Amino acid sequence: MKTALIFCLILFTLPACSQNTDQIASIFLDYHGENPGAAVAIIHDSNIIYHESFGMADREKQLSVQSTTNFRLPSISKQFTATAILILEKKNLLKLDWTLDKLFDNFPEYGNTMQIQHLLNHTSGIWDYEDFVPDNGPQVSDADVLEIIKNQPHVYFEAGSQFRYSNSAYALLALIVEKYSGQKFQDFLKNEIFDPLEMKNSVAFVPGYNEVLNRAFGYSQEKGEWIKKDQSSTSAVLGDGGIYSNVPDLFLWDRALHEGKILPRETIERTFSKSKLNNGHEILYGLGWHLKEYEGEKVVYHTGSTTSFRNIFYRIPSKKLSIIILTNRNKPEEENMVDLAERVLMKFQDMDK
């Protein structure tokens, strides 16, 4: 394998490596040059064995994507929100079977059966807050999401009876973290996860409160042109997708998952295990992670999609193999990011033969 590429990322301070002609780079030809870019990495056995950066982080300022460029993660953030809840559980500050009527004042009656664990595995049935927020409206916060949910007299289904992916659930989880930790959500992540792991560039971004260094800005393609479109009315909600990070920091996070640095290994295994509905049927979601198989091996992954970012963090724990793809553009569609990661995986397998 390309040992020079290992040092390129481990040193973290170097610009992106320049092997633009390798097999993996050929997958990302559309990300080169003046186009919005990508940072791509493969981690194997706690080593970064491949990394390349392509295209522009800021087209207006002609700033290219580097190894230390920070991208908005969108829903990849959910694994950190879930971890925050599990840290509080470990500290005996909350229990996952607590119901929402006990957690939030004046919560609708359906909160009597809706538990924290239902929020974590997307079986709560609560309404999607995005349906009540106009695309061109003012930005809403996690607290605003709570008020939106309180004003909905019904749910999609009885808690625990079905799976329906819910950003609303993770906004409420961020508020639960704040209530039972006594810290702002962004501070709790910093103090309990990012700082202990030396993830110095990762941040749950709150304008005016903290900042994102070396930031990639988002772009959407409209009528063949790339338009800077970095934020939306939902971009200020933290629990479901408000974290920025980069490849070096996610490498540290990946290693912590293998080594059990923040949570015990048995707890991490819970996050990677299929959840069960009330009838015993298993669903392909754990606690902050989607689940699937690739060539007979368990895959845990999460995509992240918002206005102009498309990302994926794809892991095969049994092989200690992970793929990170971070981009600042609105293509491809989120559901196609798994295929993109597996194209990278197949090229890696070919190179490793």
From TrEMBL:
<dbReference type="Pfam" id="PF00144">
    <property type="entry name" value="Beta-lactamase"/>
</dbReference>
<keyword id="KW-0378">Hydrolase</keyword>
<dbReference type="GO" id="GO:0016787">
    <property type="term" value="F:hydrolase activity"/>
</dbReference>
<dbReference type="InterPro" id="IPR012338">
    <property type="entry name" value="Beta-lactam/transpept-like"/>
</dbReference>
<dbReference type="InterPro" id="IPR001466">
    <property type="entry name" value="Beta-lactam-related"/>
</dbReference>
<keyword id="KW-0732">Signal</keyword>
<dbReference type="InterPro" id="IPR050491">
    <property type="entry name" value="AmpC-like"/>
</dbReference>
<feature type="domain" description="Beta-lactamase-related">
    <location>
        <begin position="34"/>
        <end position="339"/>
    </location>
</feature>
<feature type="signal peptide">
    <location>
        <begin position="1"/>
        <end position="18"/>
    </location>
</feature>
<protein>
    <submittedName>
        <fullName>Serine hydrolase domain-containing protein</fullName>
        <ecNumber>3.-.-.-</ecNumber>
    </submittedName>
</protein>
